[in-house]
Amino acid sequence: MENNSASGYWKATLGLLTKILIIWFVVSFGAGILFAPALNSISLGGYPLGFWFAHQGAIYIYIALIFWYAKKMGDIDRQFDVHEE
């Protein structure tokens, strides 16, 4: 991989990681702590939504993030021709 291509690859990779970490922070800290009082006015399965997000909902989002990361990272690898066969 050429130097210019390598810097583009890492720029794309760090951009993806930045997006994932922002989503992770909003879900973990935002939905579980900061927005919990507002979310608690909504009920899901008999439990306040803020409680549900802090204990179960966040896990579903984390699993979705893992699959999204794997797909997008594969796309970036193919774009810069560093994918595995």
Automatic annotation (TrEMBL):
Record-annotated Sodium symporter small subunit domain positions: 7-83
TM annotation in the entry: 21-39, 51-70
Pfam family, any one: DUF4212
Key words, A-Z: Membrane, Transmembrane, Transmembrane helix
Superkingdom of the organism of origin: Bacteria
Record flagged with keyword Protease: no
InterPro entries listed in its UniProt record: Na_symporter_ssu
Name this polypeptide is given: Sodium symporter small subunit domain-containing protein
Organism (species): Thauera aminoaromatica
